[in-house]
Amino acid sequence: MSSQSPVVMLDVAAQNGPLSDKLRAVFARVLESGRFILGPEVTALEAELAAVVGVPHALGVSSGTDALLVALMALGVGVGDEVITTPFTFFATAGSIARLGARPVFVDIDPVTFNLDPVAVQAAITPRTRAIMPVHLFGQPCDMRALGRIAQAHSVFVVEDAAQALGATTEDGAVGSLGELGCFSFFPSKNLGGFGDAGLVTTKDAELAERARVLRGHGAKPKYFHALVGGNFRIDALMAALLRVKLPQLPAYTAARRENAARYDALFAAADLGPRLTTPARVEAGHVYNQYVIRTPKRDQLAAHLSQHGIETAIYYPKSLHEQGCFADLGYATGDFPESERASREVLALPIYGELPPASLERVADEVIGFLRQS
Fold it and tell me: 43 lies in which domain range?
């Protein structure tokens, strides 16, 4: 074990500490107001986030997972429907589809971006396809033009899983504004990290926004009169107020992550490790680097080496969703999506948070380079 101070994957305190006085002040404000469910703090956050994403409608919800669920419910996705998505993502992407009785239809990823391969999506369309759910993985926007053309040609919906990509942009606009609905997470590790679970649904469609809003509150409109079977998917007023303190800092948080990614890129390029190391591509200039994910055939050995030297890493994701036991009844098998499976064996996320000290970043890079040169 290294005698140096550990390098952590994420230092939440380093980000929230400078805002401590403001965070405490809004906590006191909400406490004194007695308005803990929805109310003006939520309404204000929704308006501010709608402006960031570039949509007229934003809906605060209880988590990123519930954002996906509410979005699919608003579209009426259910039993007998198919939703095309990626097997290389967090469980909630496919879990939200399955919870509604629909079938997740997995297709393989582009090995460069880790995102959905539009050619594979086109091949997977059937008469039962109701929606496509791309994931802007690690903050890298998907090829939304290609996916949009496919969706339009087959009259299916697009639900963006943008949980890791708030602030990410394309030439056509911000993620979360490019499909029928966008879904975000404010889990503490996200680029705009909250203080527990919270999420957001975005849309340009007023009818979908209203349907999602009704579903968020048990399907009631007005109260105690239920046209729909919804759920308790509301964001807390306190969470909304705290997020409002951090939201103005999002551009700076994003810039710091991009700067750290550029430092890693330069250090690794100078080392010229060839096939021993693949650094993340920045296919879209609007990449926001929720994670900085390298690839190496020596992943497990490298992770162990870094751990021994006090450096935390993470594996997103160690097992593709089509290989998970809960999805065995879908009939997929190992070998069906080779790029996703290969990524699961090779990916390793390095610390990238904006407050990471430059010396710590260089230490991480030095250890990666030193190990791979000798391996």
Answer: 13-107+114-247
